[in-house]
Write a structure and sequence with these properties.
The protein is α/β, with parallel strands linked by helices. The protein is 39% helix and 22% strand. It is built from 11 helices and 14 strands.
């Protein structure tokens, strides 16, 4: 099985200095690539000088996460792509359980490892934790993380489990499936595009799995922190994008409820004296309205749509019923 570990970089020399050594050291079963998104720093020179075995692909523009990977992966031949963030520390033998799972489960198209917090190493990391799910209204949550409540890793997710979405921080996918799905949705630019890709894979009958014996540490927020209104804008907008494209059944009630819940979130930000985040939600909704007919066209091209949620509203469970960990749901 030919595996390509593919790191997307944009002006990230400091991150490459810190994290690329662990990837090179512990990924002997794979070939390591850096796709550079038209960086203006000396990232490429640094990699060439210090890691001559790492292959470099240079994109002509910074098209964000989705377009960056779509453009770069066209130049890579492998059975499995691993889309790996540049702020990830991998561990010894991290690839072996993933390879075993792909061999054991031929219907599995996408796999995520256990993702722990680089700065708080006994706890799961926000972006993916132990595998993701989504509620009726498109709000994502994880085993090990619901909204901002993050669980300590006590071995409770040391398993192989079917999940709904895998984190883009470390995202393994069979190359033939990536090509069949025509890659990531370039209109997302960044954030939640991995959920959209997993949803489309699920709609085509593929399986997505979490493999707890593979472990990595993720910094998170290296590009945009959770305090950045731009991240709020992209998360709210792109969540509406993926719900509209992929959800089974009549959309009107789902979208209307979602917009109301987003409005309540905007009011909460105001009460917390975070008006820029409220404005970010308003901009997200305007962006959604302006793209609505394009999204409906994409929706029509998806012939099969699966029952995608286990929980009707993670918002109600968390904020009203005070269920703050996955096993309490």
């Amino acid at each position: 099985m030919n595996i390509a570990i593919v790191i997307l970089n944009w002006n990230g020399k400091k991150l490459l200095e810190q994290f690329l050594p662990s990837v090179v050291t512990y990924s002997r079963e794979a070939t390591v690539y850096v796709i550079d998104n038209a960086s203006s720093d000396d990232s490429v020179t640094f990699v060439r000088s210090n890691f001559p075995d790492v292959k470099i692909i240079q994109n002509v523009e910074n098209g964000g996460y989705s377009k960056g990977y779509n453009d770069g992966l066209k130049h890579i031949e492998a059975d499995i792509y691993c889309l790996l963030n540049s702020d990830v520390e991998v561990t010894e033998n991290w690839l072996v359980p993933v390879i075993q799972a792909f061999n054991k489960f031929p219907e599995t198209a996408i796999i995520q490892p256990k993702i722990l917090d680089f700065n708080n190493r006994d706890y799961f990391e926000y972006a993916g934790a132990a595998g993701g799910f989504i509620d009726k209204y498109g709000y994502p949550y994880c085993r090990g993380r619901i909204f901002n409540s993050i669980e300590k890793d006590l071995g409770q997710y040391n398993d192989v489990a079917e999940i709904f979405w895998a984190s883009g921080a470390c995202f393994f996918i069979r190359s033939k499936v990536f090509q069949e799905l025509k890659g990531l949705d370039g209109d997302f630019f960044a954030h939640m595009e991995e959920i959209d890709l997993c949803w489309r894979a699920k709609n085509m009958g593929y399986s997505v799995k979490y493999v707890g014996d593979s472990k990595i540490y993720h910094v998170g927020g290296a590009t945009l922190s959770n305090l950045n209104p731009k991240k709020t804008h992209l998360n709210f907008r792109n969540s509406l994008f993926t719900l509209t494209k992929n959800a089974k059944g009549i959309l009107f009630g789902k979208i209307l409820t979602r917009l109301i819940l987003d409005g309540i979130a905007g009011i909460k930000f105001l009460l917390e004296l975070k008006p820029k985040h409220t404005l970010a939600i308003v901009k997200a909704h305007l962006g959604f309205y302006s793209n609505f007919y394009r999204l409906l066209k994409q929706r029509k091209s998806i012939k099969q749509k699966i029952n995608y949620y286990k929980k009707s509203s993670i918002v109600i469970d968390y904020f009203v019923n005070k269920k703050t960990n996955y096993k309490s749901l």
